[in-house]
Amino acid sequence: MAPRQWRAAIALGAVFATMNVAYFQAIEYLPIGVASTIELLGPVVVSVAMYWHWRDMAGALMALTGVVLLASPGAELPVAGLVMGVLAAACRAGYVVLNRRVGQLFDDWSGLAVALAVGACLLTPVAAVTHGAAVAHHPRLLLTGLLVALLSSLIPYSLDMTALRRIDVRAFGVLLAMSPAVGACVGFAVLGEHVTVRQCAAIALVVAAGAWSVGSAPGRTGRRPPEPAAAPDPERSPRDAPPEGPGRAGVHRAEKAGIHRPEKD
User: Fold this and answer.
1) For residue 126, what pLDDT is reported?
2) Per-domain residue ranges for the chain?
3) Which portions of the sequence form the region Disordered (predicted)?
4) Backbone angles phi, psi at 262, to 5 degrees
5) Which carries the bigger pLDDT value, residue 233 or residue 58?
6) Backbone CA torsion sign across 99, 102, 107, 109
């Protein structure tokens, strides 16, 4: 692999490790819907920064209002959970940019494989020190950890890379804007988490901000503008130009020179 491929894959692996630790620590203190809402702020900031327009101010204000509702003193959310959520948001922003970069540098899945291996190498020593004794007493936790790795890392990251190879960051942000609502529904249905009216309003504002910020301007697709046509060479003589085919321009030039084409019977 080229050095730039190694750098991109290693950086993505480091982001994988930090993002997973931050998010799983955040949901230890916060409901899943709230943690997903804070994490969504990262991709929203990326979308606004890459496609800045005055209309994006409305999305930024909606997101700011949602964060104020979540983090204000009356919200009763642990500070540790908010800090971990903000760290996860920063990592999610880097993840979107780096995942797209790796997808462009690698035609296959080798870049993602290297990134996941780097993330595993960074997290394995930490997990061995903090939870090694628990795993030794309950080996079945390894199977649970494998399922978590498949469902929360390998499969989602592969799908994200596939999507980012086909759509731009703006459209991908629209899909990510649905994650807080999905997280809140899963937390309520599976884990029995209860979300207050205030938190529901904050989640709705951040989801709307994400969809608005990345989808308010349909013309901003994030594609490169077409390259300008090459300027004509002033030293090139008209005689060096390629001969014209039997099109309308060639017929016009022949008629101007007094040459008439014989008509077909």
Assistant:
1) 86
2) 3-215
3) 216-265
4) -65, 140
5) 58
6) negative
Residue 239, both tokens: 């005689």
Nearest C-alpha neighbor of 88 from the set 10, 130, 147, 29: 29
Q: Token digits for 68?
A: 């104020």
Distance separating alpha carbons of residues 32 and 116, to the nearest angstrom = 24
pLDDT on residue 19? 93
Write the DSSP string, the chain.
--HHHHHHHHHHHHHHHHHHHHHHHHHHHS-HHHHHHHHHHHHHHHHHHHT--TTHHHHHHHHHHHHHHHHSGGG---HHHHHHHHHHHHHHHHHHHHHHHHHHH-SSSHHHHHHHHHHHHHHHHHHHHHHHHHHHH-THHHHHHHHHHIIIIIHHHHHHHHHHTTS-HHHHHHHHTTHHHHHHHHHHHTS-----HHHHHHHHHHHHHHHHHHHS-TT---PPPPPPPPPPPTTS-GGGSPPP-SSHHHHHHHHHTT--PPPP-
Query: What phi-psi label fits residue 192: left (phi over 0), alpha (psi between -120 and 50 degrees) or beta?
Result: left
Locus of tokens 């649970």: 144
Of 29-33, 113-117, 150-154, where does the model show the most confidence? 113-117
Q: For residue range 203-217, what is the model confidence (pLDDT) as tens digits?
A: 787 777 766 755 554
Nearest 5°: the CA angle 140, 146, 148 is 110
For residues 80 and 65, what is the distance between their CA atoms, to the nearest angstrom?
21
Better pLDDT: 139 or 69: 139
Q: Is the pLDDT of residue 7 over 90?
A: yes
pLDDT at residue number 262: 54
Measured on CA atoms in the order 245, 246, 250, 256, is the torsion positive or negative?
positive
